[in-house]
Amino acid sequence: MKKKPGNGPRRQLEAQASSEPAIRMHKHRRHRFILQMLADQKVVTVHEFTVALQSSPATVRRDISELAAAFALKKIHGGAEVLGSIERPELNQLLYEYSDAINITQKCEIAKQAVGLCEDGESIIINGGTTTFQMVRFLESRKLQILTNSLPIANHLLERSLNRIQLPGGEVYHNQHIVMSPFEDNTIKNYYASKLFISAIAINANGLLENDPRLIHAEHKLMAQADQLVVLVDSSKFSQRGSLISAPLSKVDLLITDDGIDTESRKMLDDAGVKTMILEVARPEGS
After folding, report:
1. pTM of the full predicted structure?
2. Nearest Cα to Cα of residue 237 among 217, 257, 266, 251
3. Sign of the CA dihedral 37, 41, 47, 51?
4. Three-class secondary structure of residue 214 per DSSP
5. Which pLDDT tens digit goes with each residue over 189-215?
6. Domain 8-101: CATH architecture, name and number where available
7. Is 104-279 a CATH 3.90.79.10 domain?
8. From CA 42, how far away is CA 10, in angstroms rounded?
9. Within its chain, how far is the Cα of 105 from the centroid?
């Protein structure tokens, strides 16, 4: 018996997709939407994908075929079916990689600016995420003490830098590639940092937003150990949606974003008294 599809995340995806014309929905972003819808609904029809993505049926079928060839989903008549994350852990890897590929130019510039705020010998915390991960290339030549819950960040810096790396205790979560624990962790409690670098899936007047309460619990523990909260978000995050508040804007000491941010979002940050760095980013043609 097939599980009846849930409506919450599907409606959220449709709202996100309808906020921008289909012509601007690049392939990587369409693939991420497809995988996210499948993770929630297990089975999705071509028509449902077409409505959510505002793409043509031919485009959706082509996307399904490409993802099926990459063993990210199962192609079925009239749609697609999820491949269980336990049996096919590469689905979680693809979700991470597609998210990482979106707005990569902006993320790199934001990450470069963030690393520029750090001095050698400083103790910092880096929360896992595709934007914060871009900090690693600029940290390769530095010598800092870094606590991170991100396995990709820790692995990269251990192999390519002289930074001292610490990991918290807990369970490794495949979707986010981070270490989380429901219990109090002595490693975190005994670590002091001048700055915590963090991102979010969305940001609005309520604050930083996430969809997973486990992530929020982990982030709150990290926030308690740092003097400053530095938020790294590309401008697309101001048009995204999340269901849970990770931190109000009043907790943000500095927010770094790119010049794609709209006027309304700039005003929102100004009204909240958030110190903001808006970076000029040269974008590739056609983006």
Report:
1. 0.71
2. 257
3. negative
4. helix
5. 889 999 999 999 899 999 999 988 888
6. Orthogonal Bundle (1.10)
7. no
8. 12
9. 15
